[in-house]
Amino acid sequence: MRINLISGLFMAILLVCTTSKANAEQLPMPDTGEDGMHIQDWVHDSFLDLGEDLAEAAADGKRMVIMWEQRGCPYCKRM
């Protein structure tokens, strides 16, 4: 019974790992601007008045994200 449980868990993990890689290969590549930074339709360039930005997002029923990017960042490329 224990071997069946271990076999089942191994097969489940194997299935998840193989389908995750297949799905990742189908994802579209992100758009980047001339400066190499990512372009997202939901990004709002502000004047860095975070209190005002938060109030504006709350008024629209949205949440606020503070995002940092660095041109050529290897971690950003992997994500």
Describe what is shown at a glance.
With 79 residues, this protein is an all-alpha fold. It contains 3 helices and no strands. The protein has one domain (2-78).
Structural write-up:
- The chain is mainly α and about 80 residues long.
- It has one domain.
- Helices cover about 50% and strands about 0% of the residues.
- The protein contains three helices and no strands.
- The protein is elongated.
- It starts with a helix and ends with a helix.
- About 0% of the residues are buried.
- The mean pLDDT is about 75.
Q: What are the key terms here?
A:
0% strand, elongated, 79 residues, mainly alpha
Distance between the termini: 40 Å
**Overall 3D geometry?**
elongated
- Biggest pleated-sheet summary: none
Estimate the mean pLDDT confidence: 77
Number of strands: 0
Q: What percent of residues adopt helix (DSSP H or I)?
A: 40-55%
The radius of gyration is 21 Å
| Multimerization status | single chain
List the helices and strands in order.
HHH
Number of helices: 3
* Low-pLDDT residue intervals, each spanning 5 or more residues: none
Number of domains: 1
Structural class: mainly alpha
Strand content: under 5%
Q: What secondary-structure arrangement, pairings included, does this model have?
A:
Layout lengths: L1 H24 L24 H10 L14 H5 L1
